[in-house]
Amino acid sequence: MPVILLPIIAVVADASYMTIVKHFFRQYGRLTSREFNWLQFVGIVFVLLLTTPFFVRWPAIVQMQSVWQLLAGVVILATAANLLFYWAIEREKISEVEPFLLFNPLVAILIAGVFYSNERIWPVYLAAGVASLVLVWSHWRKHKLVLTRGLTAIVGFSLIYGLEASAIKTLLTVYDPIALYLIRSVFVLLALSLVAWPNFKIIKRHHLAIFGVLGALAVISVVAAYTAFQLRGLSETIFVFTLSPVLIYVLSVIFLRERWRTKNIIASLIITGLVVWVSLMK
């Protein structure tokens, strides 16, 4: 398989996942982000356990011990990111969240530049500044910036996303993508069980099949992304991820029939152009 297809596969799987997630919250309004988060990781771990015996080569114990602190940090970051992200998705329209998701790749590259000298590229910093102004403009309502609690949570998610991506790059020098995602997911599931225990009384049997599908899509998306991190590098892969919110935009219009504000569409186009420009400069 050509390496360039890996981030594209990740993007398609991620956009499909997000569209199903939004439909799920509409269809099953009683379930909160607590139940959703917990069940999705059950689905992810289930799918990973099915695939692990066939594809995983575990590193030596000494290698795993050398990065256990970084792995613990990733688990903490991933738990916080999931809590923030799905809490926001539960409350906001995709059309409102989408411009902020477009901004994620730029944030991730900026943060990566702090930890990796070869990621410090001046066009990224310039584009991030312009994108910040565009985002403020797109959410300016009646002479004031409208930043709801949900969108504030997405901003926090963006920062955590960048930190985790930088840490993942180092961990992939020790772990295979599937092995790393399995360990990450198991410990995130345990952490969620401690800090966000679901209400099982409102979980029904027919919910479980959906989480099997979501688990499979999440595994495809993340494992493809991790593999691309190894083979293509962090910057090149993350820049391709800007296509995911754009694809979510198309799917939400077709399947969810959401109404989009002109400012959000313009902001998305400008930020997409910025990411493409930075990618070409790279």
Automatic annotation (TrEMBL):
InterPro entries: EamA_dom, EmrE-like. The keyword Phosphoprotein does not apply. Signal peptide: none annotated. The chain crosses the membrane at residues 6-25, 37-56, 68-88, 100-116, 122-140, 152-172, 178-197, 209-231, 237-256, 263-280. Keywords: Membrane, Transmembrane, Transmembrane helix. Residues 149-278 form the EamA domain. The keyword Magnesium does not apply. One of its GO terms (cellular component) is membrane. This is EamA domain-containing protein.
